[in-house]
Design goal:
- The complex is a heterodimer of chains A (235) and B (352).
- Chain A has eight helices and twelve strands.
- Chain A folds into two domains: 6-128, Response regulator (Rossmann fold); 135-230, Arc Repressor Mutant, subunit A, CATH 1.10.10.10.
- Chain A has helices at 14-26, 37-47, 63-71, 87-96, 108-128, 161-172, 180-187, 195-210; strands at residues 6-10, 30-34, 51-55, 78-82, 100-103, 135-138, 141-144, 149-152, 155-156, 177-179, 220-223, 227-230.
- Chain B has three domains: 2-114, no CATH class; 122-189, Helix Hairpins (Orthogonal Bundle), CATH 1.10.287; 199-346, Heat Shock Protein 90.
- Chain B is 59% helix and 12% strand.
- The chains are: A alpha/beta (235), B alpha+beta (352).
- At the A-B interface, helix 8 and strand 11 of A face helix 5, strand 1, helix 6 and helix 7 of B.
Chain lengths: 235, 352
């Protein structure tokens, strides 16, 4: 046995499997491949991979089925590979419990970065048991969770309670996309018709306070029509 | 409900025309002291009715009413019905024939018009397909050629030669991706009713997403952005509008030769958001301006400059997307040199 991370790739296209195996292998991961949804489900329960990369368009069943069945008893991170460019499919997959998504076609860097972020998040949430301890640092931005203090370049930035909560939520899931619905559920609890607008306005204020300009958001990346993602160092 | 309203509207129309015919006849009888004009006036009325109503029903109904009216008011015995005279029967037959023939004629006309617009759509689609297949073949040839070259000559090629060929493959596949994204956008709109799913999108987030994507494609070009400070949301299909902005920006990169400045500004006018992309390149040749947004539908199917960057497809996709949003799109040359592409979208009220 080795201590490499085990990644299960559920994908029916041989060519795509091929190059993903190469990329993941080069990045130091052990890779398993399943060609159908049911084979994937079987290998998922027998091999207990650390991460799953799942294609949504599988020959036997919709990949969403896989997410549903996996989430019944496991919190293993799932990254969805989607050839569909509509936001709705991504949002559905994320809300069903997928942790992240990559739209085909993607680059090597994109794939390994997402894999790394998903694995790290899985580790940190299991170790910290969901509670955010200590500090979060990204470039010159520091969030001190204990003192509820946000500083940039050593200077304090004042955030409202809600803004701070959103910032904390996103920083707890660095590198992962959180859907509008997921953020709203965490911050306000209920999801009514005005929620998205409330969230959008709060995000606009956060961006302003962080000094972000369009095309130059160092901290929070917006995934149009899907949600937001806290950026991570080295991306 | 809609159909019912339409029926009521047509009924009113028929009633008014018949009343006009009736009273005009009363007036003319008084004026000229002759009854020769009566059938003509009614036939004219029936003709107008059949022409402007759906199907045969109103035409036939009004011809029967006309026969009754003539019989009642204008033939002996006056102001009483006498339906069995041969005169009455024959005038009824004539009016019925007029009604039926006009009805048939107009129905045929309407069908022909529909067919014509359908065949126009079909032709546009065929043209798009032809242009796209032409455009797809070039990068595919290059990908196929480059990859076979590497496989067949793996041991003889220098590393940097291999890298160059692989780089070409990568570039061509990126280009193919963009082309396919454009085609997907079109299929997303080109369904029966041109309806799109709009959701309120924050302007700043849209521009941010566009710039991030554009920088990935064309890292060597900088875009100067000017947008209002206020929090603005615009109802739109964000993916499609993103596509429009990317297409126009990339169009400038590929076609505006000598460009050093590229800017994107958004301002609001009443309840409209106006997007404008300005460059200081060579401008658009005047003869191309009128057909710029119908690129593939026009004659110039093959790119004239020898490159395969036939953004004609990109721009016609833009115009399709914007018209699906009920907006306007335009392009013009600047006096100072360079071109401006712009489009407008209807806006929501600002928040707070």
């Amino acid at each position: 046995m080795n201590n490499k991370y085990k990644i299960l790739v559920v994908e029916d296209e041989d060519n795509i499997c091929n190059f993903m195996k190469t990329i993941l292998h080069a990045a130091g991961y052990q890779t398993l491949v399943a060609c159908t949804c049911s084979q994937g489900q079987m290998m998922f329960s027998s091999h207990k991979p650390d991460l799953v990369i799942l294609d949504l368009g599988l020959p036997d069943k919709d990949g969403l089925e896989f997410i549903k069945s996996a989430r019944e008893h496991s919190s293993t991170p799932i990254i969805v590979l989607s050839a569909r460019t509509t936001e709705n499919d991504k949002v559905t997959a994320l809300d069903l419990g997928a942790n992240d998504y990559i739209t085909k076609p993607f680059s090597t860097g994109e794939l390994t970065a997402r894999v790394r972020a998903a694995l790290r998040n899985a580790v940190s949430t299991s170790q910290l048991n969901g509670s955010a301890e200590g500090k979060f640092t990204l470039h010159d931005l520091v969030i001190d969770y204990n003192r509820r203090l946000v500083t940039m370049d050593g200077k304090e930035i004042k955030f409202t309670q809600t803004e701070y909560n959103i910032l904390k939520l996103l920083s707890n899931h660095t590198g992962m996309v959180l859907t509008y619905a997921a953020i709203i559920r965490e911050i306000w609890g209920i999801n009514d018709s005005g929620s998205i607008k409330k969230l959008q306005v709060n995000m606009a204020n956060i961006r302003k306070k962080l000094g972000s300009k369009p095309g130059d958001n160092k901290y929070i990346i917006n995934e149009l029509g899907v949600g937001y993602r806290m950026s991570e160092e080295g991306l | 409900m809609q159909k019912y309203k339409e029926k009521v509207r047509e009924g009113f129309f028929v009633l008014i025309i018949l009343l006009i015919a009736f009273f005009l006849n009363l007036f003319l009888v008084e004026l000229f002291q002759t009854r020769t004009l009566i059938p003509m006036i009614f036939v004219l009325g029936i003709f107008i009715i059949s022409l402007n109503t759906q199907g045969y029903f109103w035409g036939i109904a009004s011809s029967l009413i006309s026969v009754l009216a003539v019989n009642y008011a204008f033939t002996y015995p006056y102001y009483a019905f006498d339906l069995i005279t041969p005169e009455c029967v024959s005038s009824a037959v004539v009016m019925l024939i007029v009604a039926i023939m006009t009805g048939a004629l107009t129905t045929q006309l309407k069908q022909q018009e529909k067919l014509k617009s359908e065949s126009q759509m079909e032709r546009m689609r065929a043209n798009l397909l032809r242009a796209v297949s032409h455009d797809l073949r070039t990068p595919l040839t290059s990908i196929y050629g480059a990859s076979s070259a590497i496989i067949d000559n793996y041991d003889f090629l220098e590393d940097d030669q291999k890298l160059k060929l692989l780089g070409d493959i990568q570039k061509d596949s990126e280009w193919l991706t963009r082309m396919v994204e454009n085609l997907l956008s079109v299929t997303r709109i080109n369904t029966e009713d041109v309806r799109i799913a709009k959701s309120p999108t924050v302007l700043e987030e849209l521009i941010d997403a566009v710039l991030v994507k554009f920088r990935k494609h064309c890292p060597e070009h900088d875009v100067t952005v000017t947008i209002p400070e206020d929090f603005i949301t615009i109802p739109m299909d964000a993916m499609l509008i993103e596509q429009v902005l990317i297409n126009i920006l990339e169009n400038a990169v590929y076609h505006a030769k000598g460009m050093t400045e590229l800017s994107l500004t958004v301002h609001t006018e009443n309840d409209m958001a106006i997007f404008e992309i300005t460059d200081n390149g060579q401008g658009i040749p005047n003869e191309k301006l009128p057909t710029l947004f119908v690129g593939y539908a026009g004659a110039g199917l093959t790119p004239t400059d020898g490159t395969r960057r036939n953004m004609g497809i990109g721009l016609s996709v833009c115009s399709t997307i914007i018209s699906a949003h009920n907006g306007n799109i335009w392009a013009r040359n600047r006096k100072e040199g360079g071109a401006v592409f712009g489009f407008s979208l209807k806006m929501e009220d600002t928040y707070e």
